[in-house]
């Protein structure tokens, strides 16, 4: 093995050898590719101590290494944050970026990518408030007196706790001490904010009297946390937001709610018709309501705080705000998303927002599209069939509820469904084959139409045909 390792030239020597041939490649990129290839080759030699003597030397002599270098350079030049097709049936897929942006938000990103109006008044030329444009829209849509925006909802909660309960007690129901994805735990966030956690009630039952019993001179905040990623059913009880507000006003203590998912309106026709609505929380009189921008709002990642003017402005003046404020891209995309919401009223679905267009797609249309994709995929995908499926909202929203959908089910030879799913994920972007994320269920790969844009159907057919063709 040691002789094989000695046959791997140093990176500097290889760089000198290949630099003239690959003169168009940036030198740092060429060096990185050579280092990756030689490191990989060393690992292979060490893992195969009985390899044929001279195999490494032949790799450099017969052109194999050069071909690998060409492929490595092409791969390194590709952006890692690449577009994919979501066929998982999870609408708000955290790993795939949660809510897909509406067309107007994508256009807004392009408009503001260079210079743009961010925090300057065009009429006076004076510097102004960064999120002023979205503030007005948020107040209009939620009924709040004031609003502001930070870079995600975890930051919004941190700002809330730091600004209102630092060094003081924050009272929360024991049943609301949630953990969401990525290890975000309410007790740990409180600890980092400097607030002291005071748990009240039990996991399944908490009364307003439990809050009242522990209020003291050190109480800084009454906090409600929407348990958006799990449900407690059966023998349960919890105070209403109005009760929490009344107690807070009686004792001169602010009351707030972290709603998480950020549903702006109630839609009886959708499976989450009982999800808490931001405007209802605001109407209850809460001092602050926080929620995400990239879940049921359908916009970019951000955290939104709405509520009473004096409280929101005090939080905005907090030194922490500058560290977590959003950038121009977030604000532009959020404004465009809110303008889409403004186009509809009542229970009318804002179909300009992809999340709601996907939720509202009729099953018959999904079946038509699925059948057409199967036909276009060709003989290679002969095992593909159209089946009924179940989709879900995802990202910790509306837990435990699935709703009807349609999928293309594909069997893999020898039960190799995981390998077929892997090939679909990898795709071949340089050859025009999109990356496609599906799910494996009961030994078959399922491509759920609920989360596939209709404009992507042709790409799905090509990706399916190519992946099945390689497996046959």
Please tell me about this protein's structure:
It is a single chain. It is built from 19 helices and 15 strands. The chain folds into three domains: 75 residues, no CATH class; 125 residues, Aspartate Aminotransferase, domain 1 (Alpha-Beta Complex); 242 residues, Aspartate Aminotransferase, domain 2. With 472 residues, it is α/β, with parallel strands linked by helices. The chain has a seven-stranded mixed beta sheet, sandwiched between helices. The chain has a four-stranded antiparallel beta sheet with strand order 11-12-15-14. A two-stranded parallel sheet has the order 1-13. The chain starts with a helix and ends with a helix.
Provide a brief overview of the structure.
This protein is an alpha/beta fold. 41% of the residues lie in helices and 15% in strands.
């Amino acid at each position: 093995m040691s002789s094989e390792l000695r046959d791997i030239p140093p990176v500097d020597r290889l760089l000198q050898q290949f630099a003239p041939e690959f003169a168009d490649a940036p030198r740092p990129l060429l060096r990185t590719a050579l280092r990756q290839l030689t490191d990989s080759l060393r690992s292979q030699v060490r893992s195969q101590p009985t390899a044929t003597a001279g195999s490494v030397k032949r790799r450099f002599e017969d052109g194999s290494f050069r071909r690998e270098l060409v492929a490595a350079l092409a791969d390194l030049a590709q952006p890692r944050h690449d577009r994919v097709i979501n066929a998982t049936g999870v609408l708000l897929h955290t790993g795939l970026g949660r809510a897909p942006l509406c067309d107007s938000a994508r256009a807004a990103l392009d408009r503001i990518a260079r210079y743009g109006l961010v925090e300057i008044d065009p009429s006076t030329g004076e510097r102004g408030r960064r999120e002023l444009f979205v503030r007005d829209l948020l107040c209009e849509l939620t009924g709040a007196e004031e609003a502001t925006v930070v870079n995600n909802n975890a930051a919004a909660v941190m700002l809330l706790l730091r600004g209102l309960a630092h060094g003081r007690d924050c009272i929360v129901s024991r049943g609301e001490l949630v953990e969401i994805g990525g290890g975000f735990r309410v007790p740990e966030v409180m600890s980092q904010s400097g607030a002291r956690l005071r748990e009240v009630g039990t996991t399944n039952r908490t009364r307003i009297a439990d809050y009242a019993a522990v209020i003291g001179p050190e109480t800084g905040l009454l906090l409600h946390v929407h348990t958006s990623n799990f449900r407690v059913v059966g023998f349960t009880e919890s105070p209403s937001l109005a009760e929490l507000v009344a107690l807070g006003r009686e004792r001169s203590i602010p009351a707030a709610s972290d709603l998480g998912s950020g549903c702006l309106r109630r839609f009886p026709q959708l499976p989450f018709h009982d999800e808490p609505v931001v405007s209802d929380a605001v109407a209850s009189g809460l001092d602050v309501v926080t929620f995400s921008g990239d879940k049921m709002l359908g916009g970019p990642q951000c955290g939104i705080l709405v509520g009473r003017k004096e409280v929101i402005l005090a939080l905005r003046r907090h030194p922490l705000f500058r560290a977590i404020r959003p950038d121009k891209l977030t604000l532009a995309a959020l404004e465009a998303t809110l303008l889409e919401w403004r186009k509809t009223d009542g229970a009318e679905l804002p179909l300009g927002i992809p999340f709601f267009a996907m939720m509202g797609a009729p099953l018959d249309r999904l079946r038509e599209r699925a059948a057409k994709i199967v036909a276009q995929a060709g003989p290679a995908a002969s095992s593909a069939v159209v089946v009924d499926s179940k989709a879900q909202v995802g990202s910790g929203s509306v837990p435990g509820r699935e709703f009807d959908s349609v999928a293309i089910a594909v069997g893999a030879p020898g039960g190799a469904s995981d390998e077929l799913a892997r090939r679909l994920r990898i795709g071949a972007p340089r050859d025009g084959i999109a990356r496609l994320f599906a799910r494996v269920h009961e030994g078959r790969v399922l491509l759920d139409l609920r989360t596939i844009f209709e404009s992507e159907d042709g790409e799905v057919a090509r990706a399916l045909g190519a992946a099945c063709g390689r497996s046959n």
